[in-house]
Amino acid sequence: DRGKRWRLILPDSADVTAESMSGDHAGQRFVTSSGVPGGSIAKVRVDPVKPGRLWVGVSSGGRRGDRGSNVMVSDDNGESWITAAEVAGQVLAIFPGSWHGQPDQVVVVTSSAISRVGLNGEVVSLKLPAERITAADGGFDGSHGVIYALSGGGQYGAEELWRSTNMGENWTRADKALYDALPSGENRIVMRHFAVCEGLPGTLYLSCGSF
User: Fold this and answer.
1) What is the pLDDT of residues 97-150, one digit of tens each?
2) CA 203 to chain centroid
3) Helix (H, G, I), strand (E, B), or coil: what is residue 55?
4) Separation CA 159–CA 173 (nearest Å)
5) Percent of the chain scored above 90 by pLDDT?
6) Are 72 and 56 in contact (CB under 8 A)?
7) How far is the C-alpha of 51 from the C-alpha of 205, rounded, in Å?
8) Per-residue confidence band for 66, with pLDDT thresholds at 50, 70 and 90
9) How far apart are CA 58 and CA 38, in angstroms?
């Protein structure tokens, strides 16, 4: 009802045995009798073509999810869940398989891997454009999906923007115009966050920390 009312679906409220808020930021945690979800929910994707289907990425350990993540799926609006696959790294983005003609798949981008994950648990590994990814986003124009990713740099931001027009099969640099526009004597851009228009993936919004 457009945000007027909310209820807990992961974990199921009937499964919760305790709740705590700890640390400097009063981080909220649930304890469940089943142990589900077993980590921090990093990303949620509502399937655009299958009513009731939800995908979530759950970081299973480590502050940055370096010990891996679980990809969970529900076909009944979150009433029940199964773990579809385990993937390396922290989940940064989940893209619908319908964007490339595979409605029972998703493409999952993590900090250290990209995979096609199916409802049957099948995982097909693809090749990332860099060893470590800091952010990912994408869109679908009605005929094909486009994925972008940030990489490189250090703790203050990325220095490379990549594009894939075939859902992670191949990648090319998408930041040439940015670097060409740098003032004379400058050669570095620190990219922090970005967003892609989901229906017009040629439109990007990029936040840069410095030039």
Assistant:
1) 999 999 999 999 999 999 999 998 899 999 999 999 999 999 999 999 999 999
2) 19
3) strand
4) 11
5) 77
6) yes
7) 30
8) low
9) 8
What φ, ψ does residue 179 adopt, rounded to 5°?
A: -70, -30
Residues, the chain: 211
Q: Which two tokens stand for residue 33?
A: 């009798």
The DSSP result for 143-205, as a single string, is: S-EEEEEEE-SBTTBBSEEEEESSTTS--EE--HHHHHTSPTT----EEEEEEE-TT-TT-EE
What is the arithmetic mean of pLDDT over 185-208? 91
Which residue in this structure is represented by tokens 């696959």?
85
Q: Is the pLDDT of residue 159 over 50?
A: yes
Which pairing describes strands 105-110 and 145-151: parallel, antiparallel, or unpaired? unpaired
**Alpha carbon distance 174, 171 (integer Å):** 9
Structure tokens of 15?
A: 């499964």
Both tokens of 208, joined, read 């840069």
pTM of the model: 0.90
